[in-house]
Amino acid sequence: MTKLEIVNGIATIPDGETKIERFAFKDCTSIVDIIIPDSVTVIGHGAFYGCTSLKSVTIPMSVMKIADDAFCGCSSLKNIVIPESVIEIGEGAFKNCKSLECITIAGGVKLAEHFYWRDVFEGCDSLKEITFSQGIKRLACGSSARGAFKSLTIVNLPSGVATIDPIFFEDCPMLKTITVPAGKAEYYKRRLSEKYYSLIVEREAEKTRVKKEKLPTMYEDKYIIEAIDNQTLAKAIDKDKSTLCSKLNNKGEFKAAEIDGICKALDISNEEIGLYFFAK
To answer: Of 113-117, 146-150, 174-178, 233-237, which one has max mean pLDDT?
Structure first.
């Protein structure tokens, strides 16, 4: 990998790099923030092991693998979002991230049968909230990292988790709330022990409407895609996400039916779509 330049605690990985190598920045305590380009597909074994000052990292949608111990010992890291592009997460990937409080795991993450979430977050003593996004089908626990969720207070579940390990929520003495989508309380009662029934809270029905002031005024797909979950806009025009992004970035022409689909998905008028999305 090209030599990394660190300026004022911000490490920028050069665009074009596809892999952050094994132990590439091990024990680099001067790094506070990392900018990872969307060319990177693999974050290697122990890549940021022991980066104790690291407070912020955004994992781009290009990353498909986060290897074993990738962020192990990053004791200043407070929150992390694992994007839907990730299909493999290694054991201990976020082990001993002592300040980690909030984790969001997107629905594209696919795990092997032997994979256990607790092993990924072992030693995250401050972890209070985990959000599993739509697409997660299985929550396996294992026993090698019992106590990993001892500070956990809130778990947010999507609509379709089919299998939950009977001991997944064991050793969670602080757990107060298990939120589930509207209308899914009974679904999860069939998958959880009776002692957790009182913790289940249904969330209000989610709307896809985006407030007018949050709509982008340029063709910057990252703002649009981040604002809408589950590729709503891409589905609205019956195209895949990459096609949508390409059209937006290149100011490509949208057919009338596609614009109507986006308006419907966002619950806004054609006039608003013209003002806020496609203003020349």
So the answer is: 174-178
Q: Across residues 27-46, what is the average pLDDT?
A: 94
Contact 246, 252 (CB under 8 A): yes
Asked whether residue 222 is assigned to any structural domain, the reply reads yes
Residue pLDDT, tens place only, 82-132: 988 888 888 889 999 999 999 988 766 655 455 577 778 888 889 999 998
- Which residue is listed with tokens 């340029």? 218
* CB burial of residue 250 (10 Å; 0-12, 13-18, 19+): exposed
When divided into structural domains, the chain yields a total of: 1
Is residue 255 in a domain?
Answer: yes
Q: What is the residue range of 265's domain?
A: 212-276
Worst-scoring range by mean pLDDT, 38-42, 49-53, 230-234?
230-234
Question: Cα-flanking dihedrals φ and ψ of residue 82, to 5°?
Answer: -95, 110
Average pLDDT, the chain: 78
What pLDDT does residue 108 have?
61
Distance of CA 145 to the CA centre of its chain: 22
Assigned domain for 42 exists: no
Residue 117 lies inside a defined structural domain of this protein: no
